[in-house]
């Protein structure tokens, strides 16, 4: 669940691209419309080639002036999850992942670590400069504009800062530092140390800014004056409205930042989890002939709600892994019983062909029968909805991804397109980090391996396991439906005569 509505997630309008993809030697260049060249059976037998083609094309998105600004190292859309996505990707690149290299630098895979390191050096300077100019944020970030050299808060985030998004960012940085250290390459240690210093600073300000006491964490904070230092007598922080960070989804990443690093008394740490407890709920899915299958109740059950498992090692805990595997049984089979050719996740609505503008953002997309929020809009599907499935079964996840991108207009010269209507009457002609790189991150396994290693070194790993084990085992006792197989796509997006993008046919 994203507490703050994504309002500025436009990275690039298809057709208005300033930069064209770098050309590559024809021999190794897969076809832009590669998805239709593979059958579902081929992917299930061995997804390697399909994956290779997919990473190649999704990687075309990663270019200066397309998805990021090389002058300041920042991703373009200012939406927050993207801060984390970019860094998660670079963690794999510095660690030598051939898949990350296929995405970042297919023509010169060996250059990938250097590309990542160089952007992360620039990005850190941008963060440091931001902290100097706006010390009131205490090292945290609001949503910002990144088209200029120095980033500034977007107009609607002046003197405001969100907790959830910073939790996502911080654990990505945590993983990145470990990735650098794990290479054993001495030339990376300086950069690791500098990022550590930046990250450590947020540990000293986290509670002062976001913690209200009694286990209450503010979802969004209003700053008195972003230009004044945290400790300045005229500086103050106020919880915005009644919004609290207490969700058992992505918001939990920030809860753990406070738990481990904010130096709270034990009684407050305990209160953090007591406050969150009512939201962690068990529910059985049962629709048509599928179920019962026990899952964690969703807010909307959008795939987006699964983000936390890509950053912290939740799947080390047996009960969590089993509950979340059930979620993918439900997500895939629900689409089959409801005759949906794809799956749901919070995403941008389609483009209005008469204006060329995206109509809106659909947050409330998921599975109403197992969610807290039962009023949902279920007309737009998105390829990135497969990312939690991929974490359990790459082939099945990619089969669903293929089933969505074979639809009209769903591939373009920067890889997959944001979203399509289920009825095939329109697509969102938009590219975002969220809808593209979340899937790539899942294919790389998130950053949990790096984060686990550093948590062990920081001696916080056992406490993490204890807390999560306790919270999940008190709610989930006898899981139903663990014998159900993941379902494969059955329906297709109808061809209503939309023309594919001219440069990708
Ligand atoms: C990127 O955009 C900036 C600002 O519009 C422009 O000055 C620069 O030449 C562009 N760079 C590339 C490589 O297209
Ligand atoms: C260490 O990193 C530097 C800078 O990227 C690179 O030139 C060098 O080849 C790396 N050394 C090893 C052993 O990977
Ligand atoms: C951020 O700015 C504050 C106040 O000016 C300073 O004390 C702190 O060291 C800075 N943090 C980093 C990581 O540069
Ligand atoms: C999405 O677009 C459809 C028209 O294609 C419209 O009916 C619906 O209200 C829109 N929803 C949002 C949240 O923008
Ligand atoms: C949704 O969550 C809130 C907060 O925990 C709770 O009060 C409410 O009863 C829930 N509603 C449903 C339908 O689950
Ligand atoms: C993924 O699912 C497919 C199809 O159900 C199955 O054949 C395969 O063994 C599964 N792979 C894993 C790693 O579970």
From TrEMBL:
Signal peptide positions (record): 1-19
InterPro entries: SGL_GH162
Domain Endo-beta-1,2-glucanase SGL: from-to ranges: 84-505
Keywords: Signal
Designated name of the protein: Endo-beta-1,2-glucanase SGL domain-containing protein
């Amino acid at each position: 669940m994203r507490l703050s509505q994504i309002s500025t997630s436009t990275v690039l309008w298809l057709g208005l691209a300033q930069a064209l993809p770098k050309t590559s030697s024809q021999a190794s260049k897969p076809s832009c419309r590669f998805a239709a060249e593979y059958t579902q059976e081929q992917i299930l037998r061995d997804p390697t080639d399909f994956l290779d083609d997919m990473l190649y094309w999704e990687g075309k998105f990663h270019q200066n002036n397309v998805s990021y600004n090389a002058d300041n190292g920042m991703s373009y859309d200012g939406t927050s999850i993207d801060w984390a996505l970019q860094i998660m990707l670079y963690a794999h690149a510095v660690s030598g992942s051939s898949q990350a290299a296929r995405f970042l630098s297919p023509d010169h895979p060996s250059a990938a670590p250097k590309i990542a390191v160089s952007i992360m050096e620039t990005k850190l300077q941008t963060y440091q400069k931001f902290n100097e100019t706006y010390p009131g944020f205490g090292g945290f970030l609001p949503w910002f504009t990144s088209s200029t050299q120095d980033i500034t808060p977007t107009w609607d985030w002046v003197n405001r800062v969100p907790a959830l998004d910073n939790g996502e960012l911080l654990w990505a940085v945590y993983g990145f530092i470990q990735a650098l250290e794990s290479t054993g390459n001495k030339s990376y240690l300086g950069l690791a140390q500098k990022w550590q210093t930046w990250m450590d600073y947020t540990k000293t300000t986290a509670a002062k800014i976001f913690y209200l006491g009694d286990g209450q964490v503010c979802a969004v904070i209003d700053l008195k004056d972003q230009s004044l230092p945290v400790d300045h007598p005229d500086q103050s922080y106020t919880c915005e409205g009644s919004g609290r960070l207490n969700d058992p989804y992505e918001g939990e990443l920030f809860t753990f930042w406070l738990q481990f690093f904010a130096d709270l008394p034990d009684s407050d740490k305990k209160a953090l989890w007591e406050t969150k407890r009512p939201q962690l709920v068990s529910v059985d899915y049962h629709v048509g002939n599928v179920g019962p299958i026990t899952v964690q109740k969703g807010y909307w059950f959008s795939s987006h709600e699964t983000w936390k498992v890509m950053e912290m090692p939740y799947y080390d805990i047996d009960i969590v892994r089993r509950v979340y595997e059930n979620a993918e049984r439900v997500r895939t089979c629900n689409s089959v019983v409801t005759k949906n050719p794809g799956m749901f996740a919070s995403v941008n609505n389609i483009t209005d062909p008469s204006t060329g503008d995206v109509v809106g953002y659909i947050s409330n997309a998921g599975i109403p029968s197992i969610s807290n929020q039962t009023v949902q809009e279920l007309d737009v599907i998105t390829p990135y909805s497969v990312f939690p499935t991929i974490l359990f079964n790459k082939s099945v996840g990619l089969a669903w991804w293929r089933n969505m991108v074979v639809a009209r207009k769903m591939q373009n010269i920067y890889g997959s397109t944001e979203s399509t209507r289920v009825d095939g009457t329109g697509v969102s002609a938009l590219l975002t980090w969220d809808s593209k790189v979340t899937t790539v991150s899942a294919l790389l396994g998130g950053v949990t391996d790096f984060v686990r290693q550093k948590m062990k070194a920081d001696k916080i790993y056992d406490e993490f396991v204890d807390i999560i084990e306790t919270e999940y085992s008190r709610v989930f006792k006898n899981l139903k439906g663990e014998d159900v197989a993941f379902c494969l796509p059955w329906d297709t997006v109808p061809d209503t005569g939309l023309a594919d993008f001219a440069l990708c046919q």
